[in-house]
């Protein structure tokens, strides 16, 4: 969910002035509205009800000039913003749930075996030099991989950039081969 920026002091002062003429009374009204917004989000099952209530308040405060033209009742205005923030939060939670589900969901063994077989077939279509380049280029993690690539570039008398380009083209070729192989089976 896209978070609204915090209101400027001027915007916040306008908001309080809209809630009540007396600053003390405005503060009390603000606290009541904040509490009510938090309760509404909590009743809807939101885990972080306080931050969502704060988001509603920020959105109203940032748009205070337009809000003053459209709404006469502050509480009704705040309640109007709840649905938008709630829907955005629900969408975000659903996306997170789907991501977690994808990460947890194991792939079938036969699918993995099929991918391995296709990769082996595609690698066997490369020349020995190309296959060696691909295997060594993608070998290792972090610093080890960087050092391997420097050494490989030196051995092949290539610049690092030329090595990257060659590896890119080989990877693209392998990817096309893999897609074709997996679509056949």
Describe the 3D structure.
The chain has 185 residues and is mainly alpha-helical. Helix content is 81%, strand content 0%. It contains 9 helices and no strands. α1 crosses α2, α2 packs across α3 and α2 packs parallel to α5. The longest helix has 31 residues. The chain is elongated.
Rg on CA atoms, Å: 29 Å
Structural class computed from helices and strand pairing = mainly alpha
Shape: elongated
> What number is the mean pLDDT?
89
What percentage of residues falls in helices of 4 or more residues?
over 70%
Distance between the ends: 41 Å
What is the string of SSEs from the N terminus onward? HHHHHHHHH
- Sheet with the most strands? none
Ranges where pLDDT stays below 50 over 5 or more residues in a row are: none
User: In terms of quaternary structure, what is this?
Assistant: single chain
Strand content: under 5%
Tally of DSSP β-strands: 0
Number of helices: 9
